[in-house]
Write a structure and sequence with these properties.
Structural class: mainly alpha
Number of strands: 0
Strand content: under 5%
Distance between the termini: 40 Å
Low-confidence stretches: none
CATH topology: MetI-like fold
CATH architecture: Orthogonal Bundle
Number of helices: 14
Largest sheet: none
CATH superfamily: MetI-like
CATH class: Mainly Alpha
Mean pLDDT: 81
Shape: globular
């Protein structure tokens, strides 16, 4: 009976759901291979003649978009945010999990309360603050300072995540390290962080994905010369060699950039999915 359910019910449903999730990526590829007039006016469902040279124009010329320059700016911001937020959130979560000090629960409640605020509510005060500090529209590499400043305090969701993970570890590990002469920071760095490998991997995947796909923050803080790939894809994609406004939008080239934009995230997940699943399964066992 179980084999019958797997073969004729579960597996077909999984295949159908997989096809539904993959359909947007298929549609992006379909549009990317069409001519501009085919993409704007539905002539046929599939491209009559696949335009594979669209990928060559995006990657190896600057006529469509400065792809590798924008990708470099995106990856730099992703690395800054991922490293700083991961380390700072882990240290703060470790403090909330292992130090029993007065006011700990109250401070932790305030941090959790900040998770209720929509991110859009913080854009205006942050923009005003950075503007008064003169940190907007700076030249490279100082243009990344806003991300450094906002990443150092950690993010509330990951502080909660690490707090739950560190609280689930046995207290004997910490006591043994203190008996051996380790300080609090050495205990955190040498014992707790190696054990938090799955949690660190999960945090890094989420941070990289959110920062990589962020559109509003780079649009506010960066100049056009230092923009990220997400902003360039949506606002500055153009036809190769066209110096005038065309009546047909460059949808095929936007879809081409979108496919190339998505590939690093797919590769990242497939390489780290085992640690990602393990981190989700082992976090939150004890509070």
């Amino acid at each position: 009976m179980k084999r019958f359910l797997r073969m004729f019910i579960i597996y077909p449903m999984m295949i159908i759901l997989s096809m539904l999730f993959l359909f947007p990526f298929f549609w992006m590829m379909n549009i990317a291979l069409k001519r501009p007039e085919e993409a704007s006016f539905i002539i046929a469902f599939f491209p009559q003649v696949p335009q594979w040279f669209h990928f060559q124009q995006v990657l190896f010329t600057n006529d469509v978009i400065p792809f590798f320059t924008s990708l470099r700016n995106t990856l730099i911001i992703c690395v800054i945010v991922t490293i700083l937020v991961c380390l700072s959130s882990a240290m703060i979560g470790y403090g909330f999990a292992r130090f029993n000090v007065p006011g700990r629960n109250f401070l932790f409640s305030i941090i959790l309360a900040t998770m209720m605020l929509p991110q859009l509510m913080t854009f205006i005060p942050q923009y005003i603050m950075f503007s008064q500090l003169g940190l907007l529209s700076l030249s490279w590499p100082f243009c990344y300072l806003p991300w450094v400043i906002t990443s150092l305090p950690g993010w509330a969701i990951f502080i909660f995540y690490y707090r739950q993970f560190f609280a689930s570890l046995p207290k004997e590990l910490e006591e043994a390290a203190l008996i051996d002469g380790c300080g609090w920071f050495h205990t955190f760095w040498s014992i707790f962080m190696p054990l938090a490998g799955p949690a660190v991997t999960t945090t890094c995947i989420f941070l990289f994905q959110w920062t990589y796909t962020d559109y509003i923050t780079p649009l506010l803080y960066l100049t056009s010369e230092n923009q990220t790939l997400a902003v360039q894809m949506m606002t500055n994609t153009r036809y190769p060699g066209a110096n005038f406004t065309l009546p047909v939008p460059p949808v095929p080239y936007q879809m081409t950039v979108g496919i190339l934009f998505t590939l690093p995230l797919i590769v990242l997940f497939f390489f780290a999915q085992r640690y990602f699943m393990q981190g989700l399964a082992t976090t939150g066992l004890k509070g």
